[in-house]
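Weekly modeling sync, notes
Attendees: S.R. (lead), two postdocs, one rotation student

Agenda item 3: backlog of single-chain predictions. S.R. asked that every request posted to the team notebook include the full sequence so nobody has to chase files. The rotation student volunteered to paste the first one in as an example of the format we agreed on. Action items at the bottom.

Example entry:
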Amino acid sequence: MTAAEVPAVTVRVVDGEADLELARAVRREVFVVEQNVPEELEYDEYDATSVHLLAVGADGAALGTARLIFGEQARGLTGGVEGRVLLGRLAVVAAARGTGLGAELVRAVEAAGAERGGVEVELHAQVQALGFYERLGYVAEGPVYDDAGIPHRTMTRVL
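Predicted structure, as returned to the notebook:
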């Protein structure tokens, strides 16, 4: 699917259990099935209090998702940096990759973070995705580390 072939896509904040199930299905497909992340590691205690974003096609099919952790929980996960929010669980189904949807989801998380007082975003990027995030203005920090058996690196961007 190319950008020209992607049907109209809507990115919205998850509203209700049905939307949350669609977001979970995307994460299951991308992380658990494709990348072999153990399901018990994919879903965590932050899911209940995070802002989740969902991208759906004109037909209602879930195409992508991302999550925002903010406030006290973000401070606890980002080393106590005031005003830093955490972007995570960014996933786009295989058929919609390369269409700009991932970047649209990142920008939607940034906007949601700014609305909640965020002035900087942190994310934990898979090493193979560093270039994607660098093109969106993120800068890698610190060493490579393992997360669920996949090499990652912390990245940040000032909003």
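Discussion: group reviewed the output briefly. Residues 3-158 form a domain with the Aminopeptidase fold (CATH 3.40.630.30).
Action items: rotation student to repeat for the remaining queue; S.R. to check formatting next week.
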